[in-house]
Every structure is written in structure tokens, then in C-alpha cells.
Automatic annotation (TrEMBL):
The keyword Signal does not apply. Belongs to the LysR transcriptional regulatory family. One of its GO terms (cellular component) is protein-DNA complex. It comes from Arthrobacter wenxiniae. It comes from the Bacteria. Transmembrane segments: none annotated. The keyword Kinase does not apply. Gene3D superfamilies: Periplasmic binding protein-like II (3.40.190.10), Winged helix-like DNA-binding domain superfamily/Winged helix DNA-binding domain (1.10.10.10). GO terms for molecular function: DNA binding; DNA-binding transcription factor activity. Pfam families: HTH_1, LysR_substrate. This is LysR family transcriptional regulator.
Length: 318
């Protein structure tokens, strides 16, 4: 029994290398996949051959050929690793803590306070979870989600639930008309959106959530917006407005007026009284009943507490 334990203690650390070698059939490729030096792979295979009592591979030109002994051992090694992974996941599940990685795609607007607030709340209970964050347009985020490159997406507006995607609105925020300082509407308490139907609009590029929202608002007000300039973030949009290059519709900022750094220009926000101007911010996920536990826990926390956590915090983040 002691001899068996001694042999296993020498062989167990080599199992991941054996399994990777079985997949790649090349020492260099196996080393790269595992992130270890090629010399480490070679030494590990020598130790494994010593335990087995026969060579596990033969050199064939620039590659290697697995021996019958290796071909017999590798499938069982893969089964053993799968069993350990399953046991580890079950043990972590019993602990009530989450581990692993969560990939989140989000629109630029939500990177300053919305997503950090959600991650901070989750990390208090699950500090071992790491987040892989990618930001871009609404379309980009949804494409990442559908391709499997992201587990969750934070977008505005969220798409309607479907067979493959689930979604839920977390909160809704008001939209404002942004005009240059000195504009005829700058001091208005509130305006109808059709009062600027003849002016050029500064908008985000196609594919961004706010672009489709603003276009839909203008249609509701009975006109089609004339696009004067386009940008990729709301800071740029406000800067272009402050230069007198058009008007814009955007989420409420922290202040109702602003002056770009080092500039004598500025912009002001005006309430839109008609049509109702708001945007919904929501979470989107792939419908995967067998998905990772940490992803499900983060999603459930966001759905249960996200609206409360973000109420007031997210407003004014542009």
C-alpha cells in the first residue's frame, strides 16, 4: 500500500501534462498550453515513465508518438482530472462561496459607477471570484454574449427575452436635452422634443444603445433627427454640443450644466416634457441551466439587489 501511495504521489502532478500531450501530440505545444517551460514537460514525462516502468513517447521527427502504454494511461488520467474538478466544484458549492471567473460585457456609460458598484457588492461575499470586463457598444456587448465570450451583458435597453437569452430591466433613468450655453432653450424649465426638430443632432454612432433610443424618441415626436456629428462616448457628445455643433439627448449628468476642461464653451441640460424620455438599463444572460455557479450567483444578486444598489448611484454617470 505504501508503495502504491509513493507511486501515485510521483505520478499525480504529471497527469495534466499527460492529458495535454495526448491532445497536442507535441511537447512544445503542450508546454505552451500549460504555460510551463518545455524542459519541465520533458522532465515530468521522464518521471512518469519511471513510475510506469516503460517509455510513454517516442520521438518522430519534430513531433512525438505516444506509446501503447501512454495511450492506455492518458484516458484514465483525463477521467481522474475530471473527477477531481467535479469534486472541487462540489466542495466549493458546499462552502457557499464562489470561485472562478465571470466575463461581463458592458456599455461605456456603465464603467464609471454602475458596474463597479455591482462588483463591489458581490466581492464582499465572494472575494475569490475574478472578473473579465469588456466594454463597447450595445451591439458589441450582445455579440460577445451570444458568441459565448461573455457570461453577462449590461446594456441599455436590454433586448426582449428569447429562447436563448434572458433579460431583465434593473432601473430606468431620465433623458435630457443637451444644448450649448446661450442656446434659445438653455434656460427653459422643460421643452417638447419637437421644438428642436429643425436643429442638427449630435449622436452616438449606430450600434450604440443611446443612438436607437434617441432615434425612436424623435420618431415619437413626429420627426426624423438630422445627424450633424457622431461620436463614441457621451463625453465627446457633450463636448461637441458645447462647441455649438448641435443638440443632443443624453442621460442626466451629475450637474445640469458643464464647461469642458480648459474651454470657455459649455452645455446645459433641459427637461424633456414630451414624449416621455427615459432609458431602461438591464442585465442580459444566456439561458444555460448548467452554467457556472459563480455566474448564476452574480446574476441573481444583480437581479435581486441591483435596482436598489444603483438607485441614485448610477444617475449622472456619463
Amino acid at each position: 500500500m505504501e508503495d502504491d501511495h509513493a507511486e501515485l504521489s510521483r505520478l499525480l502532478p504529471v497527469l495534466p501534462i499527460l492529458v495535454e500531450l495526448g491532445a497536442s501530440r507535441h511537447v512544445t505545444a503542450a508546454a505552451q498550453a500549460l504555460g510551463i517551460p518545455q524542459s519541465t514537460v520533458s522532465r515530468a514525462l521522464s518521471r512518469a515513465a519511471g513510475v510506469v516502468g516503460t517509455p510513454l513517447l517516442l520521438r518522430r521527427g519534430r513531433g512525438v508518438e505516444l506509446t501503447p502504454a501512454a495511450l492506455a494511461l492518458i484516458p484514465k488520467a483525463a477521467e481522474a482530472l475530471d473527477a477531481v474538478r467535479t469534486g472541487l466544484a462540489l466542495a466549493r458549492q458546499e462552502s457557499g462561496k464562489s470561485f472562478g471567473r465571470i466575463a461581463v460585457a458592458f456599455q461605456h456609460t456603465f464603467g464609471e459607477a454602475v458596474l463597479p458598484q455591482l462588483i463591489r457588492a458581490f466581492a464582499k461575499e465572494h472575494p475569490a471570484v475574478t472578473f473579465d470586463l469588456q466594454q463597447g457598444s450595445r451591439q458589441f456587448c450582445l455579440e460577445l454574449l451570444e458568441s459565448g465570450a461573455a457570461d453577462l451583458a449590461l446594456v441599455a435597453p436590454p433586448p426582449a427575452p428569447s429562447r436563448t437569452l434572458g433579460s431583465e430591466v434593473l432601473y430606468s433613468e431620465p433623458l435630457k436635452l443637451v444644448v450649448p450655453e446661450g442656446h434659445r432653450l438653455a434656460g427653459s424649465g422643460g421643452i417638447r422634443l419637437d421644438s428642436v426638430r429643425d436643429e442638427g443632432f449630435v449622436m452616438l454612432e449606430p450600434g450604440y444603445g443611446m443612438r436607437s433610443i434617441v432615434e425612436a424618441l424623435c420618431r415619437s415626436a413626429g420627426f426624423r433627427a438630422r445627424v450633424a456629428f457622431q461620436g463614441q462616448d457621451l463625453h465627446t457628445i457633450r463636448g461637441l454640443v458645447s462647441a455649438g455643433l448641435g443638440v443632443a439627448v443624453a442621460p442626466a449628468a451629475r450637474a445640469s450644466r458643464g464647461v469642458p476642461h480648459g474651454s470657455t464653451l459649455g452645455w446645459r441640460e433641459v427637461d424633456i416634457t414630451w414624449p416621455e424620455a427615459r432609458r431602461d438599463i438591464g442585465l442580459v444572460w444566456r439561458n444555460r441551466p448548467d452554467g457556472p455557479v459563480q455566474v448564476a450567483r452574480f446574476r441573481n444578486m444583480v437581479l435581486a439587489e441591483g435596482g436598489h444598489l444603483l438607485d441614485g448611484t448610477a444617475r449622472g454617470v456619463t
